[in-house]
Amino acid sequence: MTKHKARRLGIAIHGAGWVAGAHAASWLKNPHARIVSISDVRRDRAEQLAGRLGLRCAVRDDYEEVLCDDRVDVVDLCGPSHVHAQQGIAAAEAGKHVLVEKPIALSMEENRALRDAVARAGVKSLAGFVLRWNPAVQSIKSLVSSGAIGRPFFIEIDYWHGLGPTHHAWDLHSRKKTGGSAMLLGGCHAVDAMRWLTGAEVVEVTAVANNPKGLFEYDANVVAAMKFAGGTIGKTSALFDCEMPYSLNIDLAGTEGTIRDNRLWSKRLFPGQTGWTTIPTILPTTADVSHHPFDAEINHFVECMREGRESHCNIADAYRTHELCLAIDRSIAEGGRPVRLPL
User: Could you give the CA distance from residue 79 to residue 92 in angstroms, rounded to a whole number?
Assistant: First the structure.
């Protein structure tokens, strides 16, 4: 039994933007947690979020005050991508458990520093790869693990999300310093799902990119081919210039069957199958945070902290996803040269 089983966890949400409201709604539903602090570099935004939620908690614009608050057990970092690593390191060094929204880092230096700080501090951590709790992805994970498609030999997951100047976070997302790259900003969801569903690590990646509209300071559209340990091959793409609704495409081919989004073809399960079997489930069909399974993600993290165990989606694991995203970016920068992993 851990010390956190005796009382409710004190939650501090830092960064009061779009995703923070969705996180807060999920924290409020968990009986083992209570929000004790909301903070933002702009105090008025923190006040507005607390007001919308009807919370009587500390409202701050000073992150150091958050870390000095003895009531805070967990810091939930929902601010801009380029400050995630430094704020996560500070939270770990202050002895706080930490949830870091993706991307957790924008460089390998930040990635290593955050991983190492969390390990040294011995705190529990979670990276915001909420796709792992999407019902369709969980169904696919179960099917693959049970051998429904035999041994996977190919996986393709694509993140297609048209972004433009009307997006609410355009000034941050469009710049290299604050957005990082197409893979780090959005494609990381696809990359992480590939690692999660195969249970294997990539050993080599080759990538190309373009930026036809010129709206971003980095290449808006990326395609990467990869080799996994064990022989599986894969492909991912992140398209920010696409003119279409949000789409996250999932394909896995195995020696005994194939999965395409929520459609299954399995010689092993259905030897007389004459058409695709459609699984009734919830697909990741929108970027709207109100659709994301934050309840399940946060409930999982609370269980990990109360039981003193590590999450499958902790910072140490997310380090590998970000390492792969950064290897893709390195291949692009080097003209499509193959890049070996680990970096």
Answer: 16
